[in-house]
Amino acid sequence: MKRFLPLAILIFIISCAKEEGNPLINPPGQAYRTQYNSMQVVGDFQGWNLNDFENTKMTLVADYQWEKIVYFNAPQDSIRFKFVANRDWNYAFGTQGPDTGLSGYAQPNCNGLGDHITAGPLRQAGYWKFQFNEKTLRYQITLVSTPRGKIYGVVAFADDTVPPYPEATVRVYKDTLQVAMVKSDTLNGKYEVKNLDDGTYKLFFQATGYNPESLTVTISGWNEVNAGTVVLTPSAVGEYAFADGPFVSITVDGSLSDWLSAAVMDTIGDSPWGLYGDLGALYVGHDAQNLYIGLHYAARDNAVIIYINVNNSDTTDGTLDGNSLDWFPRNFQFPDSTPAEFIIAKWASATPYGPYLRHITSDSTTQEVPSSDYSIADVPDTTDPTGRTRFMEVRIPYDVLYNLGQSRVLPFAKIRVVTVIAGGDHWNGPESLPENSGTNGSGTPTLLSNMFVEVIDRDGH
């Protein structure tokens, strides 16, 4: 009895199957079998250009097994393609089925529009291998390597030589396509862009309040290129600005309970001077009109000092040598770029003196700031029965620090703060916050290069 195939199956065989011919040896001298003279992978990623044979041809790597490596920029949700034999759309392998991810089975004789294979996603830039077996019709796409080219360098700022620096955005383009975007490190200005393929790239550097810059870099052989230092110059800004948030809301009562967190945290009890000189925590914040400083400390018969740098436009004020001051001279030095311009000091004893605020008007002289111009509270820590542990809070208006009036500050203003415990005149001390090497209490000169930075204005306006 004869058995007949259903008509639908018969039509499918006629339209999607190809009778296998005699195996060929292709290319000449290759000992692998194939039914075709050539195989290409053609798709939307190269404009469906079947005539671009040199860039689309696949390599016969085993019997009936073809491979082609193609570079893709990531991310790509999907790609569309066909395998085409003999440089002829009539020998196109595609599918009328759904997306099968990065592997599946193709169908022959799919030369109509829309009969392509949809595969993806390709989540990583790199070289992807297309594999196709003309016998089983199975295909697979796998990542074989990620480009290892790298561009690195430094972004510097003409008007800011002390970290933390402003954050710069570095955008990287290849031709007209943006391939990467990174940020510069605010502590050292460094940036790097990795996983770049060979080619020519244009880098654009931008930061708020600065003129943009650009440079061109070429990567060859996936090498690493040092792009050097790019210096951004300030864009035109006014003579003054106003403070930007985030703001704190502080009542100057010595409580410290309204501070959300400390700027620098330490532990009372770890100083070699014990409760005669120790620092527990430094708090720094600001609002639209004032700088606020909080301090948890322990001291007796020693000095508690807070040094402040505001980078005032008056370049004649401030000192680099705290040991030369006419008020609370102590053996602390400061970097050239961050002189101490204000000082808050107290002598902690049974009959304490201070704390008071003074303006450092030259390398050796200080001037009293009227007590009505600022607020200060210094209260005991009731958990310490010795009475040596205390809390201090200070509010200093910008009008005192910058003398610009109407709560104005310098464009891109930053205020740097460091606090120390110190012995008597011309001595150093055992502790600073933030920590600085050399604060060992031996009396030797100590450079206070590490200061906490409070950013007051971020946009220059």
Automatic annotation (TrEMBL):
Organism: candidate division WOR-3 bacterium
Record region (Disordered): 426-445
Protein name: Carboxypeptidase regulatory-like domain-containing protein
Domain of life: Bacteria
InterPro entries: Carb-bd-like_fold
Gene3D superfamilies: 2.60.40.3620, Carboxypeptidase-like, regulatory domain
SUPFAM superfamilies assigned to the protein according to its UniProt record, in alphabetical order: Starch-binding domain-like
GO molecular function, one term: carbohydrate binding
Biased composition (Polar residues): 434-445
